Amino acid sequence: MGYSVGQVSAAAGITVRTLHHYDKTGLLSPTDRSPAGYRLYSDADLARLQQILFYRELGFPLDEIATILKDPQANALDQLRARHRLLNEQITKLQRLVEVAEQAMEVQQTGVELTPEERFEVFGEVAFDLTYATDAQLRWHDRAGHQRSMASAAAHTKEDWAQIMAEAAEWRARLTAAFDAGAPADGERAMDLAEEHRQSVSRWFTPCPTDMHGRIADDFAADPRAFALIVPPSEQRPGLASYLRTAVHANAVRQSRPDDD
């Protein structure tokens, strides 16, 4: 006795169109045909379909499923191990994204709600790119400094942010002036500006030792989204992010030297 396409579709919970596609690609062709030419599936065909649906549920593409089913003993275990690793990686990433969402909800629940006009008033052209925020959380979620920084940012009031941004604008003007004047990135003027930035991070967000400051500056030079957090695109110059990075690392060396007696 064979099973019609409609019967198999209903039993397996897939569409007739899917079964036709499996037949067309050779992944699952019915064993028999009725006298009228209709497809008829055997018990063995249904067992093969069950395997196909199992691998599909795990996310395997159809071409990989076909390869496994051609020689299941040789390929299935290795393929399943690889899929197991991938699924675990995806689970880890999704868990971190959940943490990002939870932190975003915490920010919304602090009671600091700004209208679009107030946001522009406080932040001006400095934009907080949510894609960068997500990437940063995924990379640094397990660092205590990042966690403290996020908690501090969530706790700041509108007045706090206004002061932070005012201080940042004044510092930014002096940074671009030093860059435009050709002051050496490893000179006293640039290093002093780097140290001011480090102290600001420590004061407003989280203690910022020089090694952490170096990682932050590396990110400024590598990712335009990060640098836009402190210098809006309209105020940037080619090479300014790298200039600040050099100044930050030079300042770290300076800070590590013992004080002269």
Automatic annotation (TrEMBL):
Domain HTH merR-type: from-to ranges: 1-71
Pfam family, any one: MerR_1
Keywords associated with the record: Activator, Coiled coil, DNA-binding, Transcription, Transcription regulation
The keyword Coiled coil appears for this protein: yes
Coiled-coil intervals: 77-104
UniProt xrefs under CDD domains: HTH_TipAL-Mta
Stated name of the protein: MerR family transcriptional regulator
Organism: Streptomyces sirii
Lineage: Bacteria, Bacillati, Actinomycetota, Actinomycetes, Kitasatosporales
